[in-house]
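Notes from the 1:1 (GR / supervisor)

We went over the backlog. Supervisor wanted to see one worked example end to end before approving the batch request, so GR pasted a single chain during the call. The sequence is below; no edits were made to it. Supervisor asked that the structure be written out right there so they could see what the output format looks like.
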Amino acid sequence: MKLFEVATTEKVAKAGFMPFVIRKGVPVYLFMISSDGKFGGDEAQIAKGHIDAGETAAVAAVREAEEELGLRKSNLLSSFKGWSGSQTGLKSKYPFTVFAGQVKSKKAFNKPHYETKATLWLSAEEFGTTGRDSQRRIVEAVDKVVRASLQSS
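Structure output shown during the call:
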């Protein structure tokens, strides 16, 4: 598995990760519901967090997915960058980059960290109606990159 670093000049404070499987030809992503309402309420959201000192964005993204989604690195088939804040014009107090990675199995995940109340698999379209409003454009952009990558391979 190769993690692709981000080609951007913006200072990135957070990194997120969206594991996915292919269901009937459509990417379906794993999202979290926070156990603390002040961090997104009961809406599905991208697993993300701060980049620790000495970490790259890609390493931080996978670490956050391990903590918040129960991701096992051994379950990853591939990983690639999907979105960076400046690329869509979306402004954020804490700029972040999101990576996506295809997994071998929806079931090969550990129990998530205490910050996670629940996890759920959603297509980008489903996230568009049930996910955190402030992340919908991000999920759309990542999905576009994932679909293009799948079509070219």
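Supervisor's comment: The longest helix spans residues 136-152.
Batch request approved.
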